Structures are given as C-alpha cells and as structure tokens.
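Progress against Task 2.4 (sequence-to-structure conversion) is shown through the following example record, which the project officer requested during the mid-term review.
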Amino acid sequence: MSADVVVIGSGLAGSAAARSIAKDGHRVTVLERFEKAHVRGSSHGAERVFRLTYDDPAYIQLGLEALSGWALLSKESGAPLLHQVGMLDYGDAGVLATLEQLCASNGVELQRISERDASQRWGGIKFDSDVLLQPVGGWIAADLALKAFADSAKSNGAVFHYDSPVLSIAKVRSGGWSVETQGGTLSADAVVVTTAGWTHELIGDVIDERFEVPPITVTTEVVAYFERRDASLWPSFCHHLEPEIYGLPSPDGLVKIAEHGSGAETHPDERSFDPNSATIQRLEDYARDWLPGITPTALRSATCLYAATPTDDIFIERSGSLILGVGLGGHGFKFGPAVGDRIASLVAEALAEASQ
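Structure tokens generated for the chain above:
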C-alpha cells in the first residue's frame, strides 16, 4: 500500500492535518493505534475553551487564524462548533495588563469591565479584580469538531485506519518512508507524526541529529462538572491565580472547571482514569468560594492528558519529509484549523523539495 502522506495519530492535530493535506489534493492515509474517538489522549471530551488572550503574540495570531478556520469548518459540517459566549480573564493585575496590551497591539478587541459591573453582569462568578471581556471568546464543541475534521478529511479522499498501531517508521533509499503496522507496510513520500506523549518512542533514531525535538511531559489532569443554580448564560473564564482556574459551559448545561496544569506526571500507557480525589476537593472548595452560581458538589469528573513541551509551546516543524505536530495537549485544541493548515504547509514544502 502507498500514499503521498501518512499521518500517524487521529486526534485533533492528526485529523486537522489530514483535512488540510487532503484538501491540497494529496493522497492521505491516517493511522490510529486505538479505536475511533478513543479517550486515551488529549482530544476527547465535549468542550474546550476558545480564547485569544495570550502573553505571546504568536499565539494571538495563531488564534486569529483559527477563528476564521472554525467558521469555515462549522459551515462545512453544518454544525455550530464555536460558541462565542464571551471569555473572561480576571485576577492577577500584572497578567491582565500584559494581556490587554498584547491584544490591543494585535488587533484583538477586549473590554475592561470594573469588578462591580462584572459582578452585576455575571452574578454566578465572584470577581477579585477588573475583568477583561473578549467578545469572540467562548467554547468549542470539541467532540463534534474532531468528527468534523475527520469527516472533511474523508470527503476529500483521506483514508482512516483505526486499531492500527505503527510499529516503526524508516527512511528508504528512494527518499520516501516505510511505515510498518500490524496489518502491513505502507510507503509514503512524507510522514506526519501527531502522537503527543508517544512521539519520542515512535520516532526513535530516524530524526536527523540536527533536528532538536523537545521533550514532551505527560500529566494526568482532572476536570469536574457542576450544576448551575439557574439557567443564566455562562461565559468561559480564566481566574489568574496559582494555579490558574478555568471554566466553561458544557453542552449538557453544566459548568466545567479545572486547574490548569496541576496534574501528576505519567506515561500515556500507564495513566490512571480515576480522577484524583484531592483535586476534586480543591475544585469543590474553589466553586464554594468563587462561583456562587453553581452547586459546589461535583456531579461528575473525568481525566485527560496534557502532553506539553518544557515551554508549553506547540511544536510544528519538519526534518526533510518528516513533519511533527506535537505539544498541543493543554491548550492546543482552540488552534485546530490553523494547526492543520500549518502542518499541511510543511508537507507541501517537503513534497516540493522531494520532487526536485
């Protein structure tokens, strides 16, 4: 079997990349080691925050690229994927000042609202500072979005193989790649690796020593869901404490809250699916102290994996015709359409280079 491009991993980065690459007219095969829509990585779940408030202009620009991409994917799929209920940032004054300055210099609208006015407008949240409102922010219907990426990729000719773990990848003399799976060997002109915490085990020695791939740390994070006291509309929010607490509405009418990046380090094959009880207790305590609009006893909880680089930066780079898209776990879902396009751009470079 052969393909122009083999994409390894069908999570957010892999499915978004497959869509963009297939739209460019290339033959794409996606290999996923687990079942369709599995829960072992970082891409499952019903909702993710969408925001442009970053302390790095590169991510503000990436978010702006993604914003138009979400609109296109929603139109293509026929389902609303980005719900712009607003995004609130509050807490540490220094953080707010930085976010405000960078958003202003990058053309992103923010509204500064006094603590008093914010409390009147969003009575379900207790504030300790002025609030930065980002009108285009909100939440993404994550499971629907992941399906939309895959469906679009398939409609453009991409082929997905689930329960198909990759055993090895190797460079061949012709300049292409040999990808060995349990079901056979595929040849490809380019390979895209989007395997998060499994990446270093997979790429092994095939990477050029001059190509520095950052280490990826995997942590098990806990999220909890709480019942609203009334039917008022909730925004997404980030309370800039230590650790940061974020929250957002869920499609079933609950409010999801979590600590950002406080989980214990693990290996993706050894992670626990049982939420840490101490973390749930901290989230319930936070809800009791800061979120009067919800009942402070978690109705349910879940775990997910962060797979982050040391700087929390997303790593999208290529070494010849091997392209990596990793480090998204923790904050990358919001950038999905832009991540897919950037990976596809590197694939186009690699294929053009190989044809010379």
